[in-house]
Amino acid sequence: VLHKVVEGTELMQVKNADPAVADMLIESGRELERQGVRAIVGGCGFFGHHQSRVAAALDVPVVLSSLEQIPLVRRMLRSGRKIGVFSDAHYLTPALFRASGVEDISDIVVSNSTALPAVQKQQKTGSFNPHRYERQLVDLAKELVGENPDIGALVAEYTEFPTFAWAVQNAVGLPVFDCST
After folding, report:
1. Residue 155: strand, helix, or coil
2. pTM tops 0.85, yes or no
């Protein structure tokens, strides 16, 4: 496993589907190909905006967004179950879902969290508290599932989530999918 930070990408560029981000992802992907990787997985769900373009430019399989798992998760669930999505709801658009291979969003319930922007600010200032963040995610999951008891699984869009997925899964008793799955 090789990790690569895509230098030059800013969060707002990524969230707003800036085409320059695709160029940076392609360049980084080509570098990883030269190093011998056999597949590329993105950490930020908003990279899904660029899935088609990046996959077409590279020779290895590419999955840029955890949202691309939604069709698979949907097929795993009993009919009538919904999928809860953890994300910054303001930027989680139908266009992003479509770019990630999700045409129908009628069975998707998106979290409405103020915790996510706060975490991003905490990371920039060096005041990030992982224990507090874990509690916020667990509380958010409990709230989301409590308000929507027909949710059968959760998908997390953002990069920081995998470290805390086990706590969320244990708290709500549902499978959790993220960029590490």
Report:
1. strand
2. yes
